[in-house]
Every structure is written in C-alpha cells, then in structure tokens.
C-alpha cells in the first residue's frame, strides 16, 4: 500500500497520457492543467475523464476550506477559479466547509500549535464563506457540505479505527511535524488527527479529485491513501500555487497587507489590481482570469508588439472587479481611477461635518477618519501625502477656519469636510 509520501513521488514519474484521447478529454485535461502546480497522478485523471465522457457521469471534485477567518481574499479564489473551470465542463463540484476540522486547527506550515477556533467563531465565519465563494462558483450547480456530517457520528471508536490506518513514522515524515520535532517545539497529539480527518472527508464524499494549495499536498495525498484503505478508487489531487500579493514577492496575506479582499469596494479593488507590476500581471491572468490561454497569449503578443501594458492591466482589473461587483461598478471604478490620476475628485466621497473651528489639521485628519491619530496625520503631511482642495499641504501647524474643504490623503482617501 502506498503511503501519501511515496504515492506523491511515484505518481509524478508515471504521469503518462494515453495516446488516443477524444477532443473533449484533451480539452478537459488542458483546463485542468492550466496554472496548476501538480496533478497526481495525471494518467489516472485522464482515465477518469475518459470514463466520465463515455458514461455521462460527472466526476466529483472536492475543495475543502476551514472557516478560520470571516472573509477571503482573491488569493483564496485561485482554487475556486479552478473549481469553476471544471464545473463549467459539467462536473460536480463540492464546496466543503470544514466546521469539524476547524475545531482541530490545520497544522500545515505551522511552527507551533494552531489555537483551535470555538464553535461560535466557526459558525460565524462559515455563514459568510459560501456566500463569498458563490461570487466565483455557480451556486445552482454546487454541492455544499459540512464535514461535521460524518466526523461527529464517527465517534471515539471510529476515530480509533481511523487512526489505526496510518503510522506515527509516516506522519512524522511530514515536513512541518519533522521540523518541529527536531527543534523541540511541542506537537499536540490532536494535530495528527487533522490530516486523517481531511483524508476521511474524501472517503465520505467519494471524491474523484481534490484541490488545494501547494501547502496542502500531504493532506490531499492522505485522502488517496485512506480511500484505498476503505476499498475506494483513490482520488487524484491537484495543487495550485499560492498567489503572490500586490508586492509581487510574498504570498497574498492580510498580515502582510498585500491583499485584495473580495468584499472590498469596487474602486479600491480596481486601483489595487492596476498597482501590480507588468510581470506579475501575466501570472494573475493565468490564475485569476477566465479568459482562455489563447486569448491571453494573443494579448501578450500585442503588448510585445508595442501596445501599452496598462491596457492589459485595465482589462484584468475590470474583469476581477466585475466578478465581485458588476460590470457597471467596474466601468465606474475605471472612471474614478482616471479622475484620481488627473488629480480630480471622485464623484462620491464621504461628507463629514465637524464642530470646533478653527481646527488644527492633525486633529481634523483624525476626526474625519483620514488618519488614525494626529501624529500619523503629521507624518502624512511630512511625506507630502495630504492635499486641501487639491493643493499639497506642508504646514503641520495649519489651522482651518469654518468652511467646506475637500481633504485628500494619499491616492484613494477623500472626504468633504465642513467645519463649523
């Protein structure tokens, strides 16, 4: 019996594509491989595709997400995009919310024990997850499941039987466990249960393919191992790369402040996409756009031929903004960006009325919500980041009399302030 580690190594060597494939299978394989890191084993996936085409029975494609935060950013949508592409081919996608596994806490990539979430936190986060995922997936064709459905009934006896299907030695081959053990960093016994329970999800759902980020490879391979243990045909696994954030270096992360939240307002989303580098733009096209690879390649050739790269970036920004808002919102966001780039004021900005004239500029910036504190406001002024009625401000001691002012901080923060 192959273990997850051995299975991963051997399958890459044997990823052979049969010589005689129908056009439909070739197209499905091309869609599957677009932007992916690994498809394990590729030859098994081709067989599954061919069988599905011959029988008309859709394949079951699973993606599990633990509701560890109340919302998601576009980096999370890389795997959701792949799900949508496979969904559009007619396969059954399963959006699995890990309400049970969240109680354990995913140790993947961790150098210490992840604090488990409370049931209340999990419930609150899960309520928003599918609504946000539905901005990418077709909700009418998506099967929504919660892994507490089969994990809770498993009980203590079932948990012991499940744990008997994998060894501690194999579990310790996992990089993060190995590194923590070697460094003398504590590993709680319950953390061993996480990959087992994620693998058991594949057994319960009889999945044909499971998707995940590259950091999930061990857990995904566990699903193959356990399906074999339970007498099922093992799933294939598809890992997708982690999306670089706005800086083009680190993976997209809220903690690194290089992210675009899918619930951010349209103007901000559009402007953030335009802020990425020309090089990063093409990777985002591959992983985030629904345009075909042929369309993207044609666009690349136009840019290489002299067309302004900004044109392609605007197209990407409009596509992403349309997906999470609307076409009209994307058009308005483009116009707003043009206005700002020319030093203009957006059509709609917050209006704030403040008592206390005359008021110091630092206090005004804080009171209007344009700076976290008066001292931060002063730092913004020192950096040339504050404008009053379009004029860059340099005097930190300025006191404004009663009246109405358009105050701008940076490129995207505006307020129409009425001092009384």
Task: Briefly characterize the structure.
This protein is an alpha/beta fold. It folds into three domains: 4-240, HUPs (Rossmann fold); 266-341, Orthogonal Bundle (Tyrosyl-Transfer RNA Synthetase); 351-419, Structural Genomics Hypothetical 15.5 Kd Protein In mrcA-pckA Intergenic Region, Chain A (Roll). It is built from 18 helices and 13 strands.
Describe the 3D structure:
By secondary structure, this protein is α/β, with parallel strands linked by helices. It has three domains: about 5-240, 3-Layer(aba) Sandwich (Rossmann fold), CATH 3.40.50; about 265-340, Tyrosyl-Transfer RNA Synthetase, CATH 1.10.240; about 350-420, RNA-binding S4 domain (Structural Genomics Hypothetical 15.5 Kd Protein In mrcA-pckA Intergenic Region, Chain A). It is about 45% helix and about 15% strand. It has 18 helices and 13 strands. The chain has helices at about 5-15, 25-35, 40-55, 75-90, 100-105, 120-135, 150-165, 170, 175-180, 195-205, 215-230, 265-275, 280-290, 295-305, 310-325, 325-340, 360-365, 375-380, and strands spanning about 40, 60-65, 90-95, 140-145, 210-215, 235-240, 350-355, 360, 385-390, 390, 400, 405-410, 415-420. The protein has a six-stranded mixed beta sheet with strand order 1-6-5-2-3-4, with helices on both faces. Helix 10 packs across helix 11. The longest helix has 16 residues, at about 150-165. The chain is globular, with a radius of gyration of 26 Å.
């Amino acid at each position: 019996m192959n273990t997850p580690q051995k299975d991963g190594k051997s399958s890459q060597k044997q990823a052979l594509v049969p010589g005689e494939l129908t056009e439909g299978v070739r197209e499905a394989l091309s869609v599957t491989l677009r932007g992916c890191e690994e498809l394990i084993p590729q030859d098994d996936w081709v067989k599954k595709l061919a069988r599905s085409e011959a029988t008309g029975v859709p394949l079951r494609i699973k993606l599990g997400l633990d509701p560890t935060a109340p919302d998601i950013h576009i980096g999370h949508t890389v795997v959701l995009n792949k799900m949508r592409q496979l969904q559009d081919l007619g396969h059954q996608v399963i959006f699995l919310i890990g309400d049970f596994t969240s109680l354990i806490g995913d140790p993947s990539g961790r150098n210490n024990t992840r604090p488990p979430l409370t049931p209340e936190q999990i419930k609150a986060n899960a309520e928003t997850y599918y609504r946000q995922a539905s901005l990418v997936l077709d909700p009418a064709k998506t099967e929504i499941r919660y892994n507490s459905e089969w994990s809770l009934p498993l009980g203590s006896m079932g948990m012991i039987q499940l744990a008997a299907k994998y060894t501690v030695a194999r579990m310790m081959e996992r990089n993060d466990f190995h590194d923590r053990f070697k460094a003398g960093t504590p590993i709680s016994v319950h953390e061993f249960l996480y990959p087992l329970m994620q693998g058991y999800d594949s057994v319960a759902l009889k999945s044909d393919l499971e998707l995940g980020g590259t950091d999930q490879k061990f857990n995904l391979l566990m699903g193959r191992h356990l399906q074999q243990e339970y007498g099922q045909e093992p799933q294939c696994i598809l890992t997708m790369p982690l999306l670089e954030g706005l800086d083009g270096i680190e993976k997209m992360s809220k903690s690194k402040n290089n992210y675009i939240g899918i619930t951010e307002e349209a103007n901000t989303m559009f402007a953030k996409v335009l802020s990425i580098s020309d090089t990063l733009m093409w990777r985002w096209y591959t992983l985030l756009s629904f345009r075909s690879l042929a369309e993207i390649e044609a666009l690349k050739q136009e840019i290489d031929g002299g067309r302004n790269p900004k044109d392609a970036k605007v197209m990407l920004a409009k596509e992403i903004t349309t997906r999470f808002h609307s076409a009209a919102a994307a058009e308005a966001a483009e116009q707003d960006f043009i206005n700002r780039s020319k030093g203009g004021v957006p059509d709609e900005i917050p209006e704030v009325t403040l008592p206390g004239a005359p008021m110091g500029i630092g206090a005004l910036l804080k009171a209007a919500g344009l700076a976290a504190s008066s001292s931060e406001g002063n730092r913004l002024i020192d950096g040339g980041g504050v404008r009053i009625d379009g004029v860059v401000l340099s005097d930190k001691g300025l006191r404004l009399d009663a009246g109405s002012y358009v105050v701008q901080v940076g490129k995207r923060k505006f307020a129409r302030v009425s001092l009384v």
